[in-house]
Amino acid sequence: MSVTDAERTALRRAFELARRGPRGLNPQVGAVLLSPSGDVLAEGWHRGAGTAHAEVDALSKLSPGSARGATAVVTLEPCNHTGRTGPCALALIEAGIARVVFAVADPGDASSGGADRLRAAGVDVAAGVLADECEDLLRSWLTVQRLGRPHVTVKWAQSLDGRAAASDGTSQWITGPDARADVHERRAAADAIVAGTGTVLADDPALTARRPDGSLYDDQPRPVIVGTRAVPQEARLRRHPRPFMQDEGEDLPDLLDRLRELGTHRVFVEGGPTLAGSFLRAGLVDELLVYLAPTLIGGDRLAVGDLGITTIRDQRRLDIAAVHRLGDDILVIAHPKETP
Question: Among 7, 16, 43, 55, which one carries the catalytic annotation?
Answer without folding.
Answer: 55
